[in-house]
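In response to the reviewer comment on reproducibility (Comment 2.3), we provide here a single inverse folding case reported in full, input and output, so that an independent group could reproduce the run without further information from us. The C-alpha cells appear first.
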C-alpha cells in the first residue's frame, strides 16, 4: 500500500515503479505488475535490468513475442 501511495506522488520514479512491480510479481499479480514494469522500462530504457524485468513479466503472462523483444 505504501508503494502505491508513493506512486500517486511520483509516478516518474523508475525505482518506485520497479519496486512496486517486483512486489506485485512476488505475489503472482503479474498483470498488475506489468504496467509498472513498462513504466520503469520507459523511464530508463538504457538500464538492462528494467528491460529484463519487463521481459520476465511478459513471459509469465505468456506474451512470448513481446517478452523476446524486451529481452
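Designed residues, in position order:
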Amino acid at each position: 500500500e505504501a508503494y502505491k501511495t508513493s506512486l500517486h506522488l511520483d509516478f516518474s520514479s523508475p525505482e518506485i515503479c520497479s519496486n512496486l512491480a517486483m512486489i506485485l510479481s512476488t505475489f503472482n499479480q503479474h498483470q498488475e505488475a506489468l504496467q509498472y514494469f513498462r513504466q520503469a522500462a520507459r523511464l530508463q530504457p538504457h538500464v538492462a535490468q528494467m528491460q529484463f524485468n519487463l521481459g520476465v513479466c511478459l513471459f509469465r503472462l505468456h506474451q512470448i513475442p513481446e517478452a523476446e523483444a524486451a529481452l
